[in-house]
Write a structure and sequence with these properties.
137 residues, alpha/beta, elongated
């Protein structure tokens, strides 16, 4: 018969290792969540966080990104690079004055794009090229 104290110590060790592994996985999952946004599943919520420029790093599995009601005035054109799973991008209620060529080039799956309540006097160079699945603008 095995020593009960030894079995208890071994069990605690295994539990501690499992907890440590879960904490590491959780930390890696949110590693690219822009501060002070909240990231839950495939949603990145940066609503009304006081941004003056859009963050440039998001979790790679992001499908819904809410950047509405900030003070974003300029977009460089690379903020959304690599977000190939994006379905919904909310940029309304900012001060965006232009959309750079290619800003949405990786967002072919996107269905919803919110741009109202910005300062877009006109849209040149077809910034929506490549948005094959866009249903709501």
């Amino acid at each position: 018969m095995e020593n009960p104290l030894k079995l208890c110590m071994e069990s605690r060790f295994v539990v501690c290792r499992i907890v440590a592994l879960l904490l590491i996985i959780a930390a890696c999952t949110n590693a690219q969540c822009p501060f002070p946004c909240s990231c839950t599943g495939v949603t990145v919520d940066c609503w009304k966080k006081g941004f003056t420029s859009a963050p440039t790093s998001y979790p790679p599995n992001t499908e819904i990104l809410d950047l509405s009601l900030n003070s974003i005035s300029n977009l460089q054109g690379t903020e959304f690079d690599g977000l190939r799973n994006m379905l919904s991008l909310k940029l309304q209620g900012n001060s965006i004055s232009s959309l750079p060529v290619g800003i949405f080039k990786d967002l072919a799956r996107m269905e919803t794009l919110g741009l109202h309540i910005n300062r877009l006097p006109s849209l040149a160079n077809n910034p929506f090229a490549g948005l094959r699945n866009l249903k709501t603008l």
